[in-house]
Specification:
Blueprint: E1 11-13, H1 50-63, E2 68-72, E3 87-91, E4 104-109, H2 117-135, H3 138-146, E5 148-152, H4 157-164, H5 192-198, E6 212-214, H6 221-232, E7 235-242, E8 245-250, H7 269-280, E9 307-309, H8 310-313, H9 320-327, E10 331-338, H10 348-364, E11 370-376, E12 386-391, E13 396-403, E14 409-412, E15 417-424, E16 431-438, E17 447-448, E18 451-453, H11 477-497
Parallel strand pairs: 4-5, 4-7, 7-10, 8-9, 11-17, 11-18
Antiparallel strand pairs: 1-6, 2-3, 3-5, 8-10, 11-14, 12-13, 12-15, 15-16
Helix pairs in contact: 1-2, 2-10, 7-10
Amino acid sequence: MRRSLNFVFTVLFVMRVPDWNNIRFCSGLPASKGDGGPVDNDHMVRHHSYEEVLDFMDRVHRRCPDITHLYNLTGNPDTTVEGRRLAVIVISDHPERHEIGEPEFKYVANMHGNEVVGRELLLDLMRYMCDEYLTGNKDIQKLIKITRIHFMPSMNPDGWEKANRQVGAKSWLVGRANAQGIDLNRNFPDLNRIAYSHEGTASENNHLLRDAVINNAELAPETKMVIQWLMKIPFVSSANLHGGDLVANYPYDESRTGKAQEYTKCPDDATFRYLAHSYAEKHASMAKHHPKCDITDDDDFTEDGGITNGAEWYSVKRGMQDFNYLSSNCFEITLELGCNKFPEASDLIKYWNDNRDALLNYMWMSHIGVKGKVTNENGDPIADAVIHVKNLTNGEDIDHDITSAHDGDYWRLLIPGRYKVTACALPKYGCLSKEVTVENPDHSEAKEVPFILPRKNNLASDDDDEEFDLKQSVDDELHINEVRQLLADYYRNLAAKNK
């Protein structure tokens, strides 16, 4: 569950697009191929320790070596305070590399060490997808073929160890934080304040932290590793698995005015509601009337189909969900998977049965909207092109742009409707716009909308781009440099105030 501790940060950032095909992964996980035998016959009726989680992931990899890849997050340091690694398994038809046009998806669990259901569900899910792939499940095979899927069963393995050492009933708070006592979901850079200050201005509305070299001791090792992971891989969509309630929570988490409870829309509010509903409606009871987890009125989410705006529920500063949205192209929601944070092992199979279809369905959401590749007239990819969208159905611009990745590919999550999609790579290249209709048929890939951008000096006129000029912010490279300086000054002043 999401609650509160505030930490000041200073960040040195470099504005560039990384090449995720050359990421250095740690070699802390075994990767040998075996005989492909059963993974774990009793895995759904017990909790797994850190060592057992790694062993389980390795067994899945050995059973399905052609569609899985194991790696650990890296950073400075590369481990938690107690020396554990943040382990990830990838499931895809080419799991060791990014494929152009293929969206990257992630599930992250156990951010709060005492919220363990998501940790066990991801073990169940990786085993299930491996088995179903081998037995010929066409839907699973298609999902694996067209998506690169990353599962991190535990973001806070140190906290889990502390929670698990308790005898008898588990405390609501013991093990929530990491080994330093830091709540990891209150430890990310607060980009919301920057985003809110930019609203209605010509300043940047996306990628407010492009890449990070973090020199702040108040950022936990786990936070640093996740930030660098997010900056290295072009994730499209994500969910953060929590416990303590039963609801799908979507941005913004931090209220705009500072109130404790206030519905705070992000520019993609409709899309995030669509994403949250896609999980809640496939869950066995999340969208239906069910016993509430506490006695307050804040806990009844069934009137809205089992979903909630984070800030309307209660405002959270420096959470991972909003950070994903404001620092990258990644759309993340938070899934509260049940009232009991650390249930009895005998209850885990019910959690799996309740969540399996929802977990699978949500991964398909990385294929809604439009996708494509941005190139120049020679076919060379254009990285960091800005993709802006205007909703022609309601006539409103969506004031959150995404950018093309290293190979020029992009993905823009959208709900069904009519849109004007514009790609720009000023000042070197011009802008082009295309009108598209998005339908989002079930279990299908996003609509292809490629762009070939002409060099700016080859354009006879900019009249076609008069309606859309990225709010005149990318029209002048000097202005971008001013924005960078403003961000640097912001961080410097914030640090000085809190010394």
